[in-house]
Write a structure and sequence with these properties.
With about 130 residues, the chain is mainly alpha-helical. Helix content is about 45%, strand content about 10%. The chain contains six helices and three strands.
Length: about 130
């Protein structure tokens, strides 16, 4: 089975991810965990990873992959993406709040208080 580093994926667009990743493959995350993924799961995760791009001190962990919140390979529900975003936001809060820098905390709150559909929208689509 093919194995890829999850760390390289945020540099590609979700559409490119969907075009280039077919079938099942393995992803290696910053925490050393390896999980199986499909192209669709990776593309859906990639949308949420816009949060990771906006807060680069947060690692890219296996718990930031959509399959963590799915019962089956194709079980996408609105709550699935909300749970994924919540997991990433919790890690952002933990990393940046510990920094205790008020300017960083204010920025984090400004970004995280936007509706989740804006948070996961690629920057190129926001202008």
């Amino acid at each position: 089975m093919e194995r890829y580093s999850a760390r390289a994926v945020p540099n590609a667009s979700p559409v490119d991810v969907l075009k280039n990743f077919r079938g099942k493959f393995e992803l290696v995350f910053d925490d050393g965990m390896v999980i199986q993924s499909t192209g669709m799961q990776l593309a859906m995760s990639r949308y949420a990873w816009e949060l990771n791009k906006k807060f680069p001190d947060v690692g890219l962990y296996a718990r930031h992959h959509i399959s963590t919140f799915m019962k089956e390979d194709t079980d996408f529900k609105p709550s699935t993406i909300l749970n994924l975003n919540s997991s990433i936001m919790t890690d952002i809060w933990d990393v940046y709040y510990r920094n205790n820098d008020s300017q960083t905390i204010n920025h984090m709150q400004d970004v995280l208080c936007k509706p989740s559909w804006i948070l996961t929208m690629p920057s190129s689509m926001m202008s």
